[in-house]
Amino acid sequence: MTERPQPILEVRDLRVRFATSRGEVRAVDGVNLALAPGDTLGLVGESGSGKSVTLRAILRLLRSNATTTGEARWRGQDLLAMPEKRLRALRGREIAMIFQEPMSALNPVIPIGVQIAESLQAHTALDAAGRRRRAIELLDLVGIPSAAQRLAGYPHEFSGGMRQRAMIAIALAAEPKLLLADEPTTALDVTIQDQILKLLLRLSRELGMAMVLVTHDLGVVAETCERVSVMYAGRVVETGPVDRVFTAPGHAYTDALLRSMPHGGVARAPLRPIPGLPPRLDRPLQGCPFTPRCAYAEGRCGAEAPPFAPVAPGQEAACWASDRLARREVPA
Amino acid sequence: MSKAGLIAARLLQIVPTFLLIGVVVFVLARLLPGDPVSAMLGDRASDEAVNRLRQQMGLDRTIFEQFAIFLENAVRGDFGTSIAFRVPVTSVIAERLPVTLALTGLATLIALGLAVPLAFVAGLNANRWPDFLIRSVFQVGLSSPVFYVGLILLTVFAAWFRWFPVGGYGEGVADILWHLLLPAVTLALSFAAVIMRNLRASVLEVLNAEFVDFARAKGLSRRVILTRHVLRNALISTVTLVGLHAGSLLGGAVITESVFAVPGMGRLMVDSIFARDYPMIQALTLILAVVVSLAFLVTDLVQMALDPRVAR
Fold first, then answer.
1. Is residue B87 part of a domain?
2. Which residues form the ABC transporter domain (chain A) (predicted)?
3. CATH number of residue B192's parent domain
């Protein structure tokens, strides 16, 4: 951590609880993240591990049944504590977000051009003609052909890939410094997925924009991100440079995740699905939440939560077995 | 298909609709119990007189000829002579139609004026006290019979306080409004309750939509989100509901006009049925059906304007 520059986004001990009819659910249970300017961080984990909730909690987009505690510092200011009005000025302007399903995230009855222009109206001093010019530029930038004509089009008139491009254009309208991307390619077919990822990468590089990419697809992270944080049961269990984490994982869950994927773990090793299910989050968890499914579990795992500790330069994990993993990872 | 093409197609649809309405009205008049000739002449008329009248009314011709004549006359706006009033049906209706249109139009405005803002307040405060209050008040409006609400309003505001007339119809816009306000409110209450419930539900649904989250993530103000993103989407289903309610609103007008002695089509319909005034009933049915299908037409056009996905 010491050689890394001052983070622009720092999430500390983020916790989100949902009040449900069946009691309280701890969807996010003490997440820590740090992001340097221009950094690309992948946030991976199974469905329900709290990735999307973490993103939404940072921008305070969760509904009233959610209680969020902890800190999310944006250039030193806590997003979770600032008045709604200040936060609104940052949303879209400095931190933008794109969603998984552009069909439901775009308003079906408003032309794309207007949906771009309203962002510009909220965050820039451009007049109507200027907003129109900028909207065309943005559609051009994300690779939508004949941009000027598409401004009047409605979301249902765009193909899936084009809709996702349009959503990216809207998010980029005010040239944000950070893009929170919530599974932006999950709803798309593979060839389009690849185009969109390349687009996001190119844009983040050209615009000097940091990015948090939430996905359950390790391949996507390997292709696009410099750093990765692995989430399990509402916690970040491991974080580090992608090439380190994917070749020498420090957490038994990461190790199991890689072995369950083709080309993820040891070459020509058989795929090994992770047995069991993630724990229920409606009661406090003792020890490491992965213990019941873990091949390396030992006595203290179920009783005492492992601390987040360095396993290699820039790589940290919360696992009692991290040194034993490292030995096993060397192919025989 | 282009929007203009769709609108043209929708307008053309009205032709077969009207033709079908004509068939139904024509058949209905011949299915009604009783004979118009004996209704006009009474039971003790001579056979000669009956035959002469049958010939005059064209009842001796084949059913198809009769229908052709009926259609031709209807297109020209000639629905025959009223048995009760002894004047052309059209001239009676021409007096009454504006009254009913004013009453139902005013009732619709009142219903929308009450329901739309309150549905928003209720939806935005779902399951908190403003929502409970608004819902319970409207629940009362929905579950009270129209004639009962009418009688109560009449007793309180017309008989006790004497703020409003007990009945009738005025002259000049202000006077007409003054006369129609109580009956219109009566007619509006249950309608408002239906709109409120429907719109509250769609406001809640739209508030949960992802595009509202995305709008918030864009940093839009609450006002822009509510007016541009929530209101318009929520109104789409309500527009359909309002249009579909045109028929029951006219049905309610029958009762309201009777309670408040408003000289409109509804009361005319009741009187005509008691008087077995067949030409009048036939014409009224036809015109009410036409008014309702015009309301549907307007609904569809408004919906096309609100929702671009309809124009596919």
1. no
2. 11-258
3. 1.10.3720.10
Q: Which residues of A touch B (CB under 8 A)?
A: 56, 59, 61, 63, 88-93, 96-97, 99, 101, 104-111, 118-119, 122-123, 154, 156, 167, 170-171, 173-174
Q: Is B214 on the interface with A (CB under 8 A)?
A: yes
Q: Say yes or no: B122 and B233 in one domain.
A: yes
Give the residue-averaged pLDDT of A87-109: 93
Does one domain contain both B56 and B114? no
In angstroms, the CA A256 to CA A298 distance is 16
Looking at the fold, whether B54 and B109 belong to one and the same domain comes out as no
Nearest to B246 by CA among B99, B100, B96, B104: B104
Number of domains forming the structure of chain B: 2
B256 domain-assigned:
yes
| Of B83, B67, B88, B60, the residue nearest B20 (C-alpha) | B67
B50 in the same domain as B155: no
pLDDT tens digits for B49-99?
888 888 877 778 888 888 888 888 888 888 888 888 889 999 999 999 999
Contacts of B236 in chain A (CB under 8 A): 109
By the 10 Å C-beta count (0-12 exposed, 13-18 middle, 19+ buried), A196 is classed as buried
Residue predicted with more confidence, A323 or A145: A145
Residue-averaged pLDDT of chain A:
88
How many CB pairs (< 8 A) connect A and B? 83
Please give the residue range of the domain that contains residue B133: 95-310
Q: Are strands A315-317 and A235-241 parallel, antiparallel or unpaired?
A: antiparallel
Q: Is residue B9 part of a domain?
A: yes
Residue A96: its chain B contacts at CB < 8 A?
217-218
Inter-chain residue contact A88 with B215, CB threshold 8 Å: no
For the stretch B268-306, pLDDT in tens is 998 888 887 888 888 898 888 888 888 888 888 888 888
B contacts of A56 (beta carbons < 8 Å)? 213
pLDDT confidence of residue A268: 62
Q: Please indicate, yes or no, if residue B84 is contained in any of the structural domains.
A: no
Q: How confident is the model at residue A329 (pLDDT cuts 50, 70, 90)?
A: very low
pLDDT digits (tens, 9 = 90+) for A244-292: 999 889 999 999 888 887 764 455 667 778 888 888 888 777 889 999 8
Q: Which residues contact B108 (CB under 8 A, 6 or more apart)?
A: B188, B191, B242, B249
Same domain for B218 and B295, yes or no, is: yes
SS3 A314: coil
> Which B-chain residues 227-286 have CB contacts (< 8 A) with chain A?
228-229, 232-233, 236
Confidence of residue A2 (pLDDT cuts 50, 70, 90): very low
3-state secondary structure of A68: strand
How far apart CA A321 and CA A287 sit, in angstroms, is: 13
Q: Taking the model in full, what pTM does it have? A: 0.82
Residues B22, B136, single domain; the answer is no
Judgement on whether residues B16 and B109 belong to the same structural domain of the protein: no
- Nearest residue to A4 via CA among A267, A281, A241, A204: A241
Third-level CATH fold of A9-94+176-329 = Rossmann fold (3.40.50)
Residue of B nearest to A121 (CA): B220
Q: Are residues B102 and B233 in the same domain?
A: yes
Q: How far apart are CA B192 and CA B195, in angstroms?
A: 5
ipTM for the assembly: 0.89
- Domain ranges in chain A are 9-94+176-329, 109-170
